[in-house]
Amino acid sequence: MMTKNPEKPDILVYGQPKALVTSGLGGAFATHAVETRADLDRINPAIAARIRGVAVNGLVSADKAMMALFPKLEIVSSFGVGYDHVDSAYARDHGIIVTNTPDVLTEEVADTALGLLIATLRELPAADRFVRSGQWAKGNYPLTAGSLRGRIVGMVGMGRIGQAIARRLDASLVPVVYHSRHPAAGVSYKHFPNLVEMARAVDTLIIITPGGASTNKLVNAEVIDALGPAGVLINVARGSVVDEPALIAALKARRIMAAGLDVFANEPNVPEELRALPNTVLLPHVGSASVATRNAMDQLVVDNLLAWFAGKPPLTPIPETPVKGR
Ligand code: NAP
Ligand code: 8YV
């Protein structure tokens, strides 16, 4: 689909089509929509030569080969706060600005994380199935071994969303400590520079770091085992942050108690072994997935492009591609 107007900057909308993005960009830009990687590879070279901005849905990658198709590319406006699907080093080296959608989803994702934690500990999905299947008439649901009471949570990541989760845990009277590479500014929770040491000191991990190379399998077998048999692991970050086979092995052997996962190593494919385990709660990457929050994210994708092509600084550039001279 194409809206041609030679006087307006040409923008590629890459990924799942969204009404808010299409209508938001339509007035100011000549937009070209491409849904899949295969469609991208078939793009008309004359159009590719004119593309100056890309709006990218987080489910498709803005990798080196993708960006290299567009010699005039100035900005990649990416949907999602995480941008592990964007080659930010290539963008930086080629003077391309990358923007993401922080802040507007922080509270929503923190709500999901706390919901997933409680659902995992108190077996809420299994209790719901118990009622629906008529089993309640035959006797009460068994008392849960898990409880939020008496737990201590180790946050892996204490950024925007990590701090919003920690605030919810404060309100729930749950002590919080955290691991990150550097102590977080203005945060008074105890910082553990060493993740294994923190895992030994807590019984619950909530993972909320970026994905990508620096966190790949950060939560490995040693960290998981350090949590101990009462251990509960919640991952709302990226599947790549956890060694998934090591987690499955620990859950199967009950070396930890349970896991609540919103993200997986190879989405949307969730290993059968993980799906078969009774001590897991599994969500289909819905941390930010309400209509209101997804609309706010889409709007920020649009607003970054509008700001840039109006000659202003983009609203939310990633730190790897800082903007100079605007
Ligand atoms: P943020 O404000 O940038 O916070 C990131 C945190 O992770 C910081 O505390 C950072 O501290 C820490 N971190 C980064 N690299 C690390 C490493 N190698 N080892 C240990 N800690 C590390 O980001 P945010 O807005 O909170 O978002 C965090 C992530 O949540 C996103 O990048 C995304 O992957 C995920 N997310 C998931 C969903 C979902 O739907 N499930 C939704 C939104 C976001 P240091 O830099 O000091 O290490
Ligand atoms: C999005 C996310 O759902 O913002 C993020 O980093 O993981 C989610 O909010 C994801 O980007 C889907 O495309």
Total domains, how many?
2
What is the overall number of helices? 13
Low-pLDDT stretches = none
Small molecules in complex: NADP nicotinamide-adenine-dinucleotide phosphate, 2-keto-D-gluconic acid
Radius of gyration: 22 Å
Mean pLDDT across residues: 97
Proportion of residues in β-strands: 15-25%
Strand order of the largest sheet: 8-7-6-9-10-11-12
Kindly summarize this structure in a few lines.
This protein is about 35% helix and about 15% strand. The chain has helices at about 20-25, 35-40, 45-50, 65-70, 90-95, 105-120, 125-130, 160-170, 195-200, 220-225, 245-250, 270-275, 290-310, and strands at about 10-15, 30-35, 50-55, 75-80, 95-100, 155, 175-180, 190, 205, 230-235, 260, 280.
Walk me through this protein's architecture.
By secondary structure, the chain is α/β, with parallel strands linked by helices. The chain has 2 domains: 10-102 and 292-309, 3-Layer(aba) Sandwich (Rossmann fold); 106-282, 3-Layer(aba) Sandwich (Rossmann fold), CATH 3.40.50. 34% of the residues lie in helices and 15% in strands. The protein has 13 helices and 12 strands. The protein has helices at 19-26, 37-41, 45-48, 64-68, 88-93, 106-121, 124-132, 160-171, 195-201, 221-227, 244-252, 272-276, 291-309, and strands at residues 10-14, 30-34, 51-56, 75-78, 97-99, 153-156, 176-179, 190-192, 204-207, 232-235, 258-261, 280-282. A 7-stranded parallel β-sheet has the order 8-7-6-9-10-11-12, sandwiched between helices. A 5-stranded parallel β-sheet has the order 2-1-3-4-5. The longest helix is centred in the C-terminal third of the chain and has 19 residues, at 291-309. It is elongated and about 70 Å long. Bound molecules: NADP nicotinamide-adenine-dinucleotide phosphate (NAP) and 2-keto-D-gluconic acid. NADP nicotinamide-adenine-dinucleotide phosphate binds at residues 81-82, 102, 105, 109, 157-162, 180-182, 184, 208-211, 214-215, 218, 236-238, 262-263, 285, 287-288.
